[in-house]
Amino acid sequence: MIDIMCEVLTPENLTDALQLLAKADSTTKILAGGTDVVVGKTQGSKRFADTVTLIDINRIEELKGIFEKDGMISIGAATTFSEICKSKLVEEKLPLLKKASSTIGSLQIRNRATIAGNFVNNAPCADTVPALLVYDASIEIKSQAATRNISLQEFLQGPYKTQLQQGELVTRILVPTPKQNYAGDFYKLGRRRAVAISRLTLAVLILLNGKEIADIKIASGAVTPIGKRFPKLEEFAKGKVMTDNLLRDLSKKMGEEVLAVTGLRWSSDYKLPVVQQMFYQLLKGIER
Amino acid sequence: MSKDFSIVGKSVIREDGFEKITGRAKFADDYKFDGMLFSVMLRIPATHAKINSIDFSEIQNNPSVASIITSQDIPGAKKIGMIKNDQPVFCDEKVVTPGDVLAMIVGEDETELRNLVAKIKVDYTLLPTLTDPTKALEDNALLIHPELGSNLICYHPLRKGDVEKGFAESDKILERVYTTQTIEHAYIEPEAVIAIPLEDGAVKVIGSIQNPFTARRIVASVLNLPNEKVQVVQAQLGGSFGGKDDTMCMLSARAAVAAIKLNRPVKIRYARDESILESYKRHPYILKYKVGFSKIGKINAMKIDLLADGGAYCSMSPFVTWRSVVQATGPYEIENVQTDVRAVYTNNPYTGAMRGFGSPQPIFAQESLMDEIALHVGVTPDEIRRRNGLKLGSVTATGQTLKEHDVNLIPVLDKAVSFTNFAQKWKANKKEQVAAKEYVFDKPIFRDEQFIAPDSLIRKGIGLAVSFRGCSLGAEGLDQSSCYISVQPDGKIVMLSGLAENGQGLRMTLLMAAAEELGVTTDKIIYLETDTSKIEDSGPTVASRGTIMGAAAAKNAAELLRAQLEKVVRDEYKLDETDFISFRENLVFSRKKGMIAKFDDVVKAAYENKVELSAIGRYKSPDVSWDEHTGQGDAYFTYVYGCQVAEVSVNTGTGEVYLNKITAVHDPGTVINRLGALGQVYGGVTQGAGYGILEEVTTNDGMIRELNFDQYLIPTAKDIDEIKPLFLEGNEKYGAWGAKSLGEPTLELGAAAIANAVCNALGKRFYNLPLNLEEVLLGRKLRPQDIKRGSL
Description:
The complex is a heterodimer.
Chain A: E1 7-9, H1 14-23, E2 28-31, H2 37-43, E3 53-56, E4 66-69, E5 72-76, H3 81-86, H4 88-93, H5 95-102, H6 107-112, H7 115-121, H8 128-134, E6 138-142, E7 147-151, H9 152-155, E8 156-158, E9 161-162, E10 169-176, E11 182-190, E12 198-209, E13 212-221, E14 228-229, H10 231-237, H11 244-262, H12 268-287
Parallel strand pairs in A: 1-3, 2-3
Antiparallel strand pairs in A: 4-5, 5-10, 6-7, 6-10, 8-9, 11-12, 12-13, 13-14
Helix pairs in contact in A: 11-12
Chain B: H1 17-21, E1 37-42, E2 49-55, H2 57-60, E3 67-69, E4 79-80, E5 87-88, E6 94-95, E7 103-107, H3 110-117, E8 121-126, E9 152-160, H4 163-168, E10 172-179, E11 192-197, E12 203-207, H5 212-223, E13 230-234, H6 246-262, E14 266-269, H7 272-278, E15 285-293, E16 299-311, H8 317-327, E17 336-345, H9 360-377, H10 381-388, H11 409-420, H12 422-432, E18 458-470, E19 480-487, E20 493-497, H13 506-518, E21 525-527, H14 546-572, E22 581-584, E23 587-590, E24 594-598, H15 599-608, E25 614-620, E26 639-651, E27 657-667, H16 674-694, E28 699-700, E29 703-704, E30 720-727, H17 745-748, H18 750-762, H19 773-778
Parallel strand pairs in B: 1-14, 12-13, 16-17, 20-21, 27-30
Antiparallel strand pairs in B: 1-7, 2-6, 2-8, 3-7, 4-5, 9-17, 10-15, 11-12, 11-14, 15-16, 18-26, 19-20, 19-25, 22-23, 23-24, 26-27, 28-29
Helix pairs in contact in B: 5-6, 9-10, 9-18, 13-14, 14-15, 16-18
């Protein structure tokens, strides 16, 4: 019964895809897993109202695969979450990304949905964004004319808004191979244990020098308009001894920042206490 | 068990299981016919509005539109209903709830029709809305149906003894108010129906229809045709839970009107959002309880006031709330009871039948209340129930003396309590409760003491709930069923039942009952599709009556047929009158001669001797009685009893409730298909859990927020760890070998047991379902201001 009334083009390689994109206008969108586009189109979302052409990138080898090269882990844009969950490299080097990917939707959704689709759609609740942000991910974007690299944080502009320009395609996600001694965790809260849109996501990486925090990276999703890092919090924590007091202070500051960004919304009464409590719990869990 | 069964009580895989898991089973939307047209509904985004005019001019000459169907096309009744005819087939004068349909356009291209329907111009005037049921009976309340003179749908009083005297004699009185939410059935298959015109102006309807005979009556009344000119055939049903009755009758009627007008097959099929928008829901209740009890917790008096929001149409409200009035006290013997139950009209989505049918709401209230009484008296929850629970010879709130069956309330309770080690766990959890620690979030940013030590974050709780439930329709209506079986010359048997397979596995249950009686294996019997033209009306497949009424009729048919076969055996094999014939596993035995023939040989002999090998079996319910002014009478002819224990983990930081284990102990009488019975428990418990912690249809001025499964959340397999079903099969004189009911009892207890478990974990009681994240953490619900969504 679902008829999205679009023409679907299926380029076999990156060159063809970029050529198609170069000719396309704003009525053309990229189809990866389709878990946002098809659903949005069916629901009558304004974001896809004008869309009449879809360029299916699933057959393009250049957009697939996960490998490590020159100190960078490179993940193809059209890699599905199921593929990420199965990757030994991701499991070993980017455990937070694996954990975040495994919490997405259902197995069926993870079999279709892609990592680039997650942040190109840029819903506030995009599960892998906080994980990618703490790993300092950057992305490679290509058009027929050029290739550019940009940090993910910079790429994400606002809810459902990114820096992706007409004619451009995200081709790869590049993550600097983390130093082994970072400890960290990812947390997701949904209304149920599977097939749940996140109410809160948190990702933290900590590098300890004895009891002292040498480096810390903090990101959240679903409680702020888009997934974001918390540089002020990170600066505050760096160089401090990881005491219970510090963790409480950090959690309160997280609450303050979230409040500052969002103001009081209908959901704040719930989300503010939960973000502070669960951030504290996450830090305590990492501290162990 | 008194009888040595060969089939009854075994686990048998349902006969349609293979077709269903391989995708071969044919559901209504799988039927396609030459020349078939599709239909798209015209609605307006209004909760309450007067329709001034509808301008079809932009589409009426469009070649994609075969016809525009309006109420002008209806030859018969323009309004229909299960009980009261208050629901227009097409609302061309007024819209009283957002699901209302003004007209329907029909054509070959469904997608194009969806584009075209947006071009119809409707001129309407918005009217003030009534969405708060507590205001529906106020003097100046606006009337949803002015012609009825009141928003009162129905009122059921019950008076037993003298409550004021009972309160005066009590040591302690508690008064509590509970609320329960609107929920959606969430059957996996949305509505679909096809109407096919036949010769002579007759029509055939194939659909995902719960009650084909009700659909026939409604379609016949709308078309102004005699019943025999309307043939309703049930397709495989992808779930119903009471939800494919009114809505499917309505869609059948609309499709039939179009099919007759155009003389072509017409299909209506809904996507999920349209299904949730138009279909009826479970009644939300406001439940006020006042209870008086002695120092030892013996209840002297209970005063109950229940208000059900019926939404825009009457639907099944009178029957749903009638079950509530009978069962509102719970399974307790109380001398003085005063109950008032009302259902009212509002502009909210209308509410009707749903699995449980007026029981889950009062059970949540009364079982929460029992736990509070236990705390006041200082005993465990199981003990307070033992002190008040119904036993053999007890008199219920309706004045009915329980007799002639095993009144197994206390036995199911005891079994559940000992199996789960309930009392010990309950006391241990209670000790762990943070002493009277209320989570007060007075300021947005935490104070230090609000951070929880990681090892205190998750708290364990255990809670239980018990119920009694009247089987079948009771004093709601006539209660009988029929089953036809006949043996073909090759020994195969065909069966037709007036009760319908709703996905619950009824077919296999009936096959097993007949197979047991005839001494054949179930694969020898073929269950024919349910068709209103081929078998008598057996009443609706509701009220967990499929087994108690259906299996009894199937058994009766098999008994009649077996008597015919026995005569053949006696003649053919020259057995004397004193010999005893038995049928087992497709063979026939004589006590004196041993195995004498195959079942098929006997059939062959019967055909050769021109013996009739068909029978219609019947089962009539025993008489019940009801005085509608006093609420006194023998409401149901028998009852079933259940106890469920919920063991939960509560995250005190987020309000998440995780269900570690639900132990479900039920007395359904004799279990026919053990596998089917287990399936009922797994499904019912899961549905009950959804009602307890997740599910809620919320509205903003009558407009539903959760129109699809991305927002309307039902539990997944990951949300409940273990479900443990235990059966305690009590003796019963009615039904087939005492087989009674199980479908609804399995659902009605979960929410109450979970709420009690969460209270055991936190030391804090919850009065408003569902116990979702916000309710558990903050003690209240949070709602967005409107129904807009960011992703759109």
